[in-house]
Amino acid sequence: MVSLVLPRLVSFEGAPRRAASVAERNVTALKSAYWIVLISGFFEPLLYLLSIGVGVGALIHQLTLPDGRVVGYAAFVAPAMLASSAMTGAMAETTFNFFGKMKYMKLYDGILATPVQPFEIALGELGWAMVRGTLYSAAFLAIMVLLDLTSPGRALLALPAAVLIGFTFGALGMTLSTLMRSWQDFDLMGSAQFVLFLFSGTFVPAEAYPAVLRWLIEVTPLYRSVDLVRTITTGGSGWSWLVDVGYLVGLTLLGLTLASRRMAAKLYT
Known about the structure:
The longest helix has 32 residues, at 73-104. Helix 4 packs parallel to helix 7 and helix 6 (118-146) runs antiparallel to helix 11. Helices cover 77% and strands 2% of the residues. It has helices spanning 2-9, 15-28, 34-60, 73-104, 107-111, 118-146, 152-179, 185-198, 211-218, 221-233, 240-267; strands at 62-64, 70-72. By secondary structure, the chain is an all-alpha fold. Strands 1-2 form a two-stranded antiparallel ribbon. It has 11 helices and 2 strands; from the N terminus they run αααββαααααααα. The relative contact order is 0.13.
């Protein structure tokens, strides 16, 4: 059904249509067992929120943000879990799955025999990854509203931010996948992802760290993502979110460009 309806909904032509065809192929190839993988990815940040945000939050109660606002600890942790969820969902699709299709399944070799170009493959895979990231983000925002950790209006504003975060990490994931030599290399990526998760202002403000480490943290993509979502869901003011948005958009464009060039170098040789 989806393979019949999607082409009619996406009626544009040219590069966008070809990129959408790559995403459409993934929908058509979706297996029933894959839904279990999709659902499991939602529970990880939720469990962190309940165990640390709510559990530890019962001991910490409140935190003072850099702008002087005081928020509950669970409301402080929840945006970080949302940003981490968007990152995890997007990178799961654009790393392991993308690498397997490119290196072992040789899927893209066949696609390149058609008019589809490497940049359009990258864009299509990124769009498909965003479906997963958006589902996680929307479900998590609903949980935040139910737990009174943000308002419904702020949750609606936070959803596009979460989508942007997914785009950024999806593009980065594809770029990294083109540099991987084997499955073992993904252990390094998983370690780096976990370090980001722990030290991106996730559980404590970046201001709690020594100055040098703090500046290092504040230039990482997950910290900028957490800062953007936290500003929205806690009702922050000012224009610092523009820095976060500009950073994430720039990183997305850079990742897409590098990924498509690396794909072309690998697939055309």
